Amino acid sequence: MLVNAEGHIVAGSGQTLPRLGACHELLSLHHSCPSEACYIRLAFQTSQPVTSNMEHAELGPIQVKVMPLSGADGRSELAILQISHSPLNQTSPPAAQAFDSLPQTVFEADLLGRLTFANRHSLDKFEYTAEDLAEGINIMQVIAPDDRERVLQLFFRVLQGAQGLSAEFTALTKSGGRFFVLAYAMPRTENGRIVGARGMLMDISEQKAVEHSLRESEQRYQHLAHHNQLTNLPNRTLLMERLQQLLGRADQHRKPLAVMVLDVDRFKQINNSLGNDCGNQTLCEITRRLQQLLRQSDTLACLGGNEFVLLYSDVPKPDSLSLLVQRLLDAFQEPMQIAEHIISLTASIGIATSLRGPQDGETLLRQAIIGMNEAKTQGGNCYAYFSQEMQNRCEETFLYEKHMREALQRQEFYLHYQPQIDLTSGKMSGVEALVRWAGPCGTNPSPEVFIKVAEDSGLIHPLGDFVLYEACAQNLRWQKSGLPPIKVTVNISAKQFGQPNFVNKVLQTLADTGLASHWLELEITESAIMANVKEAIGTMQRLQAAGVGFAIDDFGTGYSSLNYLRQLPLSKLKIDRSFLLDIPGNKDNEKLVFSILTLARSFDLQTVAEGIETQDQLEYLKQLECDLGQGYLFSRPVSPEAIHALLSDAHC
């Protein structure tokens, strides 16, 4: 049986214990020497076998031997408790009866490995009979072939006198069944001479099954933790590990490493128009195509969404890298069949190499991302190598954004208003609200610059909220001062217009300021509408029903579809200032302006010509019956006080 250091039996049957007594009862027997009362504790303390002779009520004179079992760390946590009538020559009938009742496999073998004893549980477990045992069974017959050499070495060590050895292996039954066992073995002696081995086997199949399940779970967890679930490509965690390894090798062998970041252009349109399933299938097809172009030593990773990273080691020369990048771009453009759709894509690729000197992985990846963003700004479907100039621009943009955030907190932004004039009466019919920034040290940053930074950084939302609220509040202040009511036009960016809560935000602003909705007009671009036409129409219809007007900014410079123009609840078309250049006189521009005005009238829409700077332009537009105009000929964008004065003069 097996006992622990406290003397508790951890392996032994309920039938054996009443016959032999629990370990604490054995301790109370009459020992030949009083000091032997601590023989179990002594065996564990010394890690050496300890033998004790004593008298047992049923078995009579017996010899009890405690043999500690050493674990992998050399420590003993269990011991085999061996009980016999006398110095062990062979298994006595009473002991055999006791072993037969054990739920563990107990055996004895001679020097050739032939079993000389096996308890009933052993025979049953391995599907052998007493007749089979009498005819002869070798221990190698019950060991799986893959484990035989290892267990045989253990058997030889036991025959050489090694005590308390243990091993795990796969056992074989007579019919070929398999199960895992933990075996403990020790020498069997006769007259002081080793004549074989004896031991015990414990079925640990359930424990092994649990361990196997845990290992599989850990492997699955590790795979999920290091791979993108959709494409099964390495994720950022595994990518960075490999990147650091490749950088170390690149430094050692002095062969450059290239990092490429590939971003699918306008991928959101696929998800929006065809659904996420088509989008996911597209990403998997992109993965397959890219892998076909790569070497086995290359690493392709997916950072999530539609962004891929390629680690290309041992770059022979820059020209070869450019050829590879072009093949990658071509792979994106080749039409792909996704469900019932034929899809053609483009990509923007940023490239950074270790040629610039020793760098860490994070820096190299960041440089490749900067290069990718540069390719995006060039219109996509191209690649760009990282340069220090790009880095400088990024740092400048970062500082610019930081200053903008601080300016919003310090309320440094304010509004100017440019009058819109009725070209028939010459009176002011409305104003366009234009945001300005009172920068530090008296500077006035360009609206074109800071609005773009705001759109790229997400600051357009708080900035746009401020403009909308202040324009509505100021319009109401003019009205409350007794001035004739006019419409105020507020420019709305595509990102603002696409917000799910945009309608509620506009209506709440009107409620908070108290301005009647029909005195507010929102100016949006064609591109903002075309980003999602169906949602755009719904948004505009809800606000129009509440009384808010809409104008299309820069009409004719974007998509200009008659179909959506017919569906949209518009009140005005704004003619882009670029069409007024060199008119009268520029025949092409004259035709464009005439066509837009004719089209607007056919849809009962007012027209606003912006950028009027000369009297000739004004007279020409009057002849074409353009409704409204704005530009430096009438007034630059001015303060609320200046608008107040203009309205007062007109009112008088």
CATH-wise, what's the superfamily of the largest domain? EAL domain
Biggest sheet: strands, sense, closure? 8 strands, mixed, barrel
* Count of runs of 4 or more consecutive helical residues: 24
CATH topology of the largest domain: TIM Barrel
Written overview of the protein:
- By secondary structure, the chain is of the alpha/beta class.
- The chain has 4 domains: 1-103, PAS domain (Beta-Lactamase), CATH 3.30.450.20; 106-222, PAS domain (Beta-Lactamase, 2-Layer Sandwich), CATH 3.30.450.20; 227-386, Alpha-Beta Plaits (2-Layer Sandwich); 414-651, TIM Barrel, CATH 3.20.20.450.
- Helices cover 43% and strands 24% of the residues.
- The strands form 5 sheets. The protein has an 8-stranded mixed β-barrel, surrounded by 4 helices.
- Helix 14 (388-409) packs across helix 15.
- The longest helix is centred in the N-terminal third of the chain and has 22 residues, at 205-226.
- The chain is elongated.
- The model is unreliable at 13-38 and 86-90 (pLDDT under 50).
